[in-house]
Amino acid sequence: MKNKFLRKISDLTHIHKRAAFSDIPDRLPSRESTFQAIARERYSCRAFRSTPLTDYQVKHILEAARLAPTAANKQPVHVWVVKSPEALEKLKGATDYTYGAPAVFMVGCKPEAAWVRKYDGKNGAEIDAAIVGTHIMLEASALGLGNVWVGSFDPAKIKADFPETEGYEIVCLFPVGHPAAVPGPRHGERQDLETFSTVI
Question: Cβ(145)–Cβ(176) under 8 Å?
Fold first, then answer.
């Protein structure tokens, strides 16, 4: 008797969901979101055309970076856009990996201005800079621009050649421009979702 009653309750719940159309997402084929499409298509571009970025493109990338979340909204991050021929040439003294891009976005952080985790003293400045950098990459991709995260550079050389960065630790560089390269052969390789994630 109890099971019969529970079945009826279950049927009523199911009917209610159908009436409210709340179960439609479960019944329709899964569709990729706009964000997922950008994330899937984005790749590390290591060759660029010489075409300069427009002011519109630079502004939109910087705005996406500015809107990035930071721990406790401390915003201990700054972005420099290296795009003049003289500045790009100087930057080549600190890294071999500008790939001919017409602009390189440098992201730095100020640890003393960042949130610190009270339990173990973990400073969030570099994580904040990485989040800002991810926004730079994804917005550049949304604008149809190639980009690549560069972590191989001489921070002391950057500090010496770019006095504007005084007081900040440079965390990452992002060459950005019109791509002159296609994704590498391993671009689509990812762990399957079951290996990558666990629902607890």
Answer: yes
Average pLDDT across the chain, whole number: 92
* pLDDT higher than threshold 80 for residue 176: yes
Q: 37-177 adopts what CATH topology?
A: NADH Oxidase (3.40.109)
pTM greater than the 0.90 cutoff = no
Per residue in 121-174, pLDDT (tens digit) is 999 999 999 999 999 999 999 999 999 999 999 999 999 999 999 999 999 999
* Structural domain spans, the chain: 1-31, 37-177
Task: Tell me how far apart the alpha carbons of residues 194 and 188 are, in angstroms, rounded to a whole number.
Answer: 17
Instruction: Write out the two tokens for 33.
Output: 């979101």
SS3 string of 166-183? CCCEEEEEEEEECECCCC
